[in-house]
């Protein structure tokens, strides 16, 4: 089987699609990826790549074809819009040329924001006469208004029309949360085109690489005292102000609990300035570390924190870091509403509190850190068992390949 993955984000950027592509390749699927030049989340093209060039390389047997891409920059709505549009245009114009003479059994879109990146895949699937599968990671146009990126109703309406166009030309729409079903259904005529397909957790091999001095120092610092770790993108959606407010409350109660916010993003600068302005000595910002470092970082923490803003759209999603947190076997503090909170509570892997409620978050942090080791260990084991049962990469890969095979067989049958 030959599968073309179309996505704006791929290795060496840290997204789950990379592990899924490798897993398919290991099962005998010939995987080709059409993607852009890596620049997420720092907004600058990674060393060894060039923004305005095409490129070809191989990673773990996966063939990668890169099209030009305008870097997203930092804290610039205009640059982010140009970044989105540049991939759309480059992949639509150069993708068919780079893939000339190639045939595929399925075209698969991994679609975090922007969902518009599926437009080149619509063209390629039609041209290659292959079924199109879109894995929706963010609801558009809802996520645009929820993050404040777009407020104009006419623009949101136009985006909604484009999303409807994409969905109506998609053979199968995969959703990572059942709460996505109704919003997606409003934009597509067939319920049968929608199927639940969650994000998997990716387990890094223990001892796969020698820890850097910076990582070793960070792990030691986290383990030295009760510590809560937040890891991932630092952007508008993550409600970072709620974390800082909670940290202030925890410090005011005389608790020796520290918050480690690991990662980078559009609000990295604001976050550093705000921590300094507030004098938050219990909040530490070690910066971004590679995904291979997360296993040891998570293991050294007392608890792991995930948060999103109090917006209806975010109540419908399960942040992808939840799967990784569950698999890490550590208690989880979920400052979330809806689906993400439900998973943590259902797994008995920690506690949930309302999104945006800093007082409730401070209470949850103090409660978890105040538990004895046995209680926290039980939460962690519960989470790990739940992740293995519901979010294992091997099982989800097999399921996806079976879906591709069924769609490809249907396409061949209908073309006779």
From TrEMBL:
Which domain of life, per UniProt? Bacteria
Q: Where is the Glycosyltransferase subfamily 4-like N-terminal domain?
A: 18-199
Q: Which UniProt keywords apply?
A: Transferase
Keyword Ribonucleoprotein, does the record have it? no
**Molecular functions per Gene Ontology:** hexosyltransferase activity
Protein name as it appears in the record: Glycosyltransferase family 4 protein
Q: Which organism is it from?
A: Denitromonas halophila
């Amino acid at each position: 089987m030959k599968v073309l993955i179309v996505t704006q984000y791929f290795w060496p950027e840290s997204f789950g699609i990379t592990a899924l592509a490798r897993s398919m390749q290991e099962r005998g699927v010939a995987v080709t990826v059409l993607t852009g030049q890596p620049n997420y989340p720092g907004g600058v093209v990674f060393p060894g790549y060039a923004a305005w060039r095409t490129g070809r390389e191989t990673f773990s047997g996966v063939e990668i074809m890169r099209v030009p891409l305008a870097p997203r920059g930092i804290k610039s709505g205009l640059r982010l819009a140009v970044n989105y549009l540049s991939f759309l245009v480059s992949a639509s114009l150069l993708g068919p040329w780079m893939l000339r003479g190639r045939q595929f059994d399925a075209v698969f879109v991994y679609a975090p924001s922007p969902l518009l990146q599926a437009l080149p895949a619509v063209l390629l699937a039609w041209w290659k006469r292959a079924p199109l599968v879109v894995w929706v990671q963010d609801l558009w146009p809802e996520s645009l208004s929820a993050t404040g990126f777009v407020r104009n109703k006419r623009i949101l309406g136009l985006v909604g029309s484009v999303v409807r166009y994409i969905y109506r030309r998609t053979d199968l729409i995969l959703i990572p949360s059942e709460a996505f079903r109704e919003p997606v259904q409003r934009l597509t005529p067939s319920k049968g085109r929608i199927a639940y397909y969650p994000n998997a957790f990716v387990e890094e091999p223990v001892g796969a690489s020698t820890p850097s001095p910076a990582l070793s120092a960070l792990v030691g610092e986290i383990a030295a005292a009760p510590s809560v770790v937040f890891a991932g993108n630092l952007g508008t959606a993550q409600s970072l102000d709620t974390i800082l407010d909670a940290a202030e409350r925890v410090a005011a109660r005389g608790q020796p609990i520290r918050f480690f916010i690991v990662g980078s993003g559009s609000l990295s600068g604001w976050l550093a300035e705000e921590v300094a302005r507030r004098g938050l000595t219990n909040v530490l910002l070690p910066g971004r570390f590679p995904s291979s470092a997360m296993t040891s970082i998570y293991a050294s923490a007392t608890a792991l924190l995930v948060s999103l803003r109090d917006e209806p759209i975010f109540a419908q999603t399960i942040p992808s870091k939840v799967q990784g947190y569950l698999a890490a076997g550590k208690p989880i503090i979920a400052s979330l509403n809806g689906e993400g909170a439900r998973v943590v509570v259902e797994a008995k892997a920690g506690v949930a509190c309302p999104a945006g409620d800093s007082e409730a978050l401070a209470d949850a942090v103090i409660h978890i850190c105040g538990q004895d080791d046995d209680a926290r260990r039980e939460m962690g084991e519960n989470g790990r068992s739940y992740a293995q049962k519901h979010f294992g990469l091997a099982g989800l890969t097999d399921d996806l390949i079976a879906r591709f095979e069924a769609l490809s067989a249907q396409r061949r049958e209908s073309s006779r």
